[in-house]
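ARCHIVE CARD
Drawer: 12
Card no.: 0347
Subject: one protein chain, sequence and derived structure
Cross-reference: see card 0346
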Amino acid sequence: MLFKYRAKNSQGQMQYGTVEASTQDMALTVLQRHNLIPLSIEEVKQEGILSKQITLGGVKGKDLVIFSRSLAALFDAGVPLVEALRTLAEQNTNLKFKEIISQIAEDVNSGLAFSKALAQHKKVFSQFYISMIKTGEVSGNLQNTLSYLSEYLEKEFNLQSKIRAALAYPAFIIGVFIIVGFVMFFFVIPNLTKIIATLPQENLPFFTKLLLSISNSSATMMFTVLAIILGGLGFLIYFLRTTEGKKIWHQTQLKLPIFGKLFKNIYQARFCENLSTLIKGGLPILQGLKITGDVVGNIVYQEIIEDVAKAVKIGNTIESVLSKKEEFDPLIVEMIAVGERSGKLESILKKTAEFYSMEIDRTVTKLSSLIEPILIVILGIGVFFLLAAILVPMYSAMTSFI
């Protein structure tokens, strides 16, 4: 439960804020532990769904990057944490994120640890983020931890932006192609086929007969096909949200003919980057592996990392497990082996992550250049089909009258 309090500190100054506790007596104990003299403690009633404040927009990756970078800069400049959080809340234009940051500032001001305050908003801050902050608090090195986090989030955001940008163009072309095809088949072609239908049917080319067949059946089948597509998409979305569905999809990702290598490199880079950042932040290797498995984003790799953690716990090396897994390239296995033998695992992982990030950039660039000519060929085939189906019989009919 959340309690709103009014109290005096040891200097007699008034303080206001909120404190989380299971009972009012526990809230009182928490305040006294922080040398505060409570004047009033009231439970904050949870608002009903109809009385909640409406907020616009969600918290995006870019918002989190800017927040982390700005907080690191303010903290580095010597601004107290609570004041820095309140400053970021005031200048934030995302209403939902503004509310979250304000709540975190109030929680920290009431004596709650920063990591615990962040843990109240796990939909925004990942376990990776919370664990890094907690490590920085324990080690007294929160300033450097915030810098590590901001750099890591920026790299992750840039990587995802590059992938989205590379896929946006072909997705746009395919979307336009589908819309144009819909307009052609349901509005343009029916009028043309009325003319073609008046021509002698036995002399029509194969493409024309095929087009007439599609056009005649498309109007009646349109709603059936649309219902089947929407139903299939709904079932697919539901299935992919189940544990079994996610696992099948994550396994399929790695076996796709063109994109499989890209997905594989993304997860390998994420593994190296996450584990390197966590080790650099001061987390024990076992805890770092557990968190890396939780945030790697693929169940197949998560299970492998869990196997690695079990092996490390009984004294084996990371390399001894990864060398038996085809999901990890021999290069990355050898680099990790060198890092373990030399005691420089963190720096080796960082360099490996940088290498795979460059590989991802190159793969995305190649895919972009490959997808474009493929789409042009598909569009060319479509145009050829329409020309062969419509213009050829009309040309034949016109020449027969000459």
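Annotation on reverse: The CA atoms of residues 186 and 222 lie 9 Å apart. The two ends are 90 Å apart (CA to CA).
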